Amino acid sequence: MHKQILNKRVLNTAVAVLMSLGVAACSSGGSGAQPGISVEENRQKIAVTTIETNKTSAQEHLDKAEQALADAKAALAEVLSTDSAGEIFDISAKINDALTTVTTAVAEIAYIASSTPSYVSSASKISSTAESDVQQIAEMKAKVDAIYTEITEIQAQANNAFDVAIEKDKLAKAEAEEAARIASVETAVNAQLTTAQAQLTQAKQALAAAQNATSSVEALKAAAEAQQAANNALTAANEAAKKATEASNSTTIAQLAQQAQEAATAAQTAANQANTVASELLAKEEGIAREEAAKIAKANSDAAVARQNAEAQLTEATSISNGITTATNTATSATSAKAVQAALAPVATSLESLKTAATSAQAAADTAKNAAAISSAATADATVAQAAADQLQTLVSQAEANLTKANEALNVRVAREKEATTAASYNREDSIVQDYLDQTKREALLAQVQKTGTNAPASCANSKSSTCHKDVERGSVVVNYNQAYSSYAVLRETYDADGVNPTNSFVALAKESDLTTDRAAVTNATYTGKASYSRTNGPAVLTRDFTLTVNDDKVSGSVYQTTVNSKGVSKTTEFVGLKEGNISVNNGVVGFNGVADFSQHNAGLGTYKGVFVGSKAGEVVGTFETDSTEKATSIQGAFAGAK
Question: 605: part of which helix (H) or strand (E)?
């Protein structure tokens, strides 16, 4: 490209010289020179002019390179004056522009320097400066090359500065995050210290109350309050120490945790002193030994503290129990297995927390009971503590019962969803059937297809005018067959002619309130209707006649077609044989299942399943499928029939 530009420039110069000498170029050749001017003289003049023009051009490129260098140096100074990676990135664009300019100059002047010497021989015959001009061009090239090297080094310095700034930014961010984490830990430890100090204050106040008491009853009450405060302070101190381990290098946090521990120790000292005061007053009033009085005083204090602990556990557990009740009620009324599972997700953890609270409450009640064996005055506290523990156990039992009920609801939902479609579709997370596992959505689909009417042609082919065309939108109902209380719908999956998954999915539809729940309602009878199915993974759907016979606890049937030839002779072809299956009641609904024979389609065996619909079991609806899910042999379908 550079060579082409320079060649054009040289040609224009030569033409200009020729014109000034009166030499015209012609298409056939020849010089057309004026008399007295030889061709050699013309060549010499052209050479001189070319060298001078190239020298001027080289100087222009050198000037641009020098300006680019000045710009790059100025930009580098800016880069080195900031630590901001963003600013360095923006400033570095100036250096990149400078390098682009010099790169162009290097290429241009390199060609000039390599092509110009060829004109020296002719030019030097009439010009004394030709050789020096060429030498100057070479020197200018060397300068441009040096500038290129210098700007390249400047760019490297800028890149290095950018890398350093990035690392500083990362370090600063990490330091800020660590500082924020330490601050959070410090806040948490400080909060526990505040709690411990507040409990120490309460313990001291209780000690003062014990010291000012006029009876052992008042003193014992104050001693119990002091002991409870000491227990609370110890809990806070332990939490502070645990939290402090998250910032083991922080002296400040360690000191805060130590202060919390000191507050807890001081609170326990105050509680011990209050207990001593109460026991001495009790010994004086009862005329018993101080050791015995101290034992009784401690028992009374233990019972009072245990009562408070049991009641606190009950308060916390009640909140947990209410949450479990809400969750299980939501799960029980949910209309899909996923909704049930979502509602029950937090219940297991909550139940464990509830059981832990019950265990703690019973331990407190046992402590109070042991105290009551030592001091009759502790009996009332022991009674209250045990009542709280009993209530907690009742909450646990209720929660377990609610969870059992919710799990039963989950089993029902799973059963209903599996009954509504084929296993192949149910087990596919990307199947359109997943949109209809919710019972309310299936009932909405039932209302939709019953409103639009039955669409079940014998052959719903892959043609543009057909509802079964391969380009039908995913989720469309391509075929459906309606009855009074039940229907089935054939839903389009995303069509993939080379895929192994079925093109269509099948959903059996009936209101849950219409499902037959009384086994006695199912009597010997024959049901007739239609069955639709897709085979070999194609978009087309075939619909044939369907029959199912109930005989005691057994069912059997067929998907078939009867044709009559021109001579009036009829022929029945069975496409799917429904071998003898069993009637059973599962999760409160009367249904049936058995083995399906697909030998007519060379697809081997499979299964069929369905439910009875109506209070008198007037209808049946269900699905069938091959065991194989391979493209060449897979078949899925649905059926519906009425007595």
Answer: strand 605-613
Residue 260 near residue 236, CB atoms below 8 Å: yes
Beta bridge partners of 534: 636
Q: In whole angstroms, what is the distance from residue 136 CA to residue 108 CA?
A: 15
The pLDDT tens digits for 511-562 are 999 999 999 999 999 999 999 999 867 888 999 999 999 999 999 999 999 9
- Our measurement of the distance from residue 63's CA atom to the centroid of its chain's CA atoms, rounded to an integer in Å, reads 59
* Longest Cα–Cα distance in the chain: 156
Nearest to 516 by CA among 623, 643, 618: 618
Q: Which two tokens stand for residue 429?
A: 């997370």
Query: Residue 495: its pLDDT value, please?
Result: 64
Identify residue 23 by its one-letter amino acid code.
V
Q: Answer whether 534's CB lies under 8 Å from 503's CB.
A: yes
pLDDT at residue 27 greater than cutoff 60: no
**DSSP at 33:** P
pLDDT for residue 528: 98
Radius of gyration of the chain (CA): 48
Average pLDDT over residues 470-475: 88
The helix or strand, by DSSP H or E, that contains position 61, with its residue range, turns out to be: helix 39-80
What is the identity of the amino acid at 559? Answer: V
Positive or negative torsion for Cα 337, 338, 343, 346? positive
Query: What residues pair up with 594 in beta bridges, in sequence order?
Result: 608
Contact 492, 473 (CB under 8 A): yes
Residue-wise burial string across 532-562, b where 16 or more C-beta atoms lie within 10 A, e elsewhere? bbbbebbbbbbbbbbbbbbeeeebbbbbbee
Q: Burial letters for 403-442: b for 16+ Cβ neighbours within 10 Å, e otherwise?
A: beebbebbebbbbbbbbbbbbbbbebeebbbbebbbbeeb
The Cα–Cα gap between 137 and 55 comes to 6
Q: Are 477 and 489 in contact (CB under 8 A)?
A: yes
Q: Per-residue DSSP letters for 275-292?
A: HHHHHHHHHHHHT--HHH
Of 58, 36, 11, 43, the C-alpha closest to 127 is 43
| Most confident listed range (22-36, 61-75, 466-480) | 61-75
Between 251-286 and 290-333, two packed helices, what is the crossing angle to 10 degrees?
120
Contacts of 353 (CB under 8 A, 6+ apart): 320
Of the candidates 521, 496, 532, the one whose C-alpha atom is nearest the C-alpha of residue 631 is 496
**Whether pLDDT at 9 is above 80:** no
560 pairs with which residues across the strands? Answer: 545, 574
- Sheet strands (E) in 461-517: 477-482, 486-492, 504-510
* Rounded-to-integer distance, Cα 262 and Cα 22, Å: 112
**CA dist., res. 471 & res. 467, Å (int):** 9
> What distance in Å separates the CA atoms of residue 596 and residue 121, rounded to the nearest whole number?
102
3-state secondary structure of 407: helix
Span 608-620, pLDDT tens digits: 999 999 999 999 9
Between CA 139 and CA 144, with CA 140 as vertex, the angle to 5 degrees is 120
- Whole-angstrom Cα distance, residue 351 to residue 323? 10
Other Cβ atoms within 10 Å of 631 Cβ, number: 17
* For residues 334-352, average pLDDT: 93
- Report pTM: 0.59
CA-to-CA dists, residue 478 to 35, 468, 639, angstroms: 97, 5, 15
Amino acid at 243: K
